[in-house]
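call fold(seq) -> tokens
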Amino acid sequence: MKKILTIALAFLATTTTATATEVDKRKVLPLAEHQRNHVLTEMRALLSGTRNILEALSREDMTAVASHARSLGMGMVDKGEDHLLGVLPKEFMQLGMATHKDFDKIAADAESLKDPRHTLRQLSESMKKCSACHESYQIRVENLSGMAAREIQPAHHHHE
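ret:
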């Protein structure tokens, strides 16, 4: 099991690293600072929760897997996201909602099937949505005049 997790993490590290010379052709999402913070806070929670799921899987603790996955499910969707409606593209929102639903399914299956390999396959499929989103979009903070003031792209080697 640990070998599978090591391979999965190595794959993620090698497939998500971009070089500095690449031209960024992702669609720009111009957001206000508070909107950017909201989106990035949710993304960080998803990343942290995914790490917790992987750690629980390494111990084959399916109760913890279910708990961590459930915290990332549709219950995580904040009703205070109205400020993002009409700002974020429909496809972006669909990827996000599908990801939350995936985590609800992962939680249910972890409880009922108690099969770490099944959960790893589900997690891998769900991570494809994360990759698709990050490959398609970038966030820029919009200033008062509506112009993109600065690009917000966390470097893979730098953490805020």
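Residues 149-160 have pLDDT under 50 and may be disordered.
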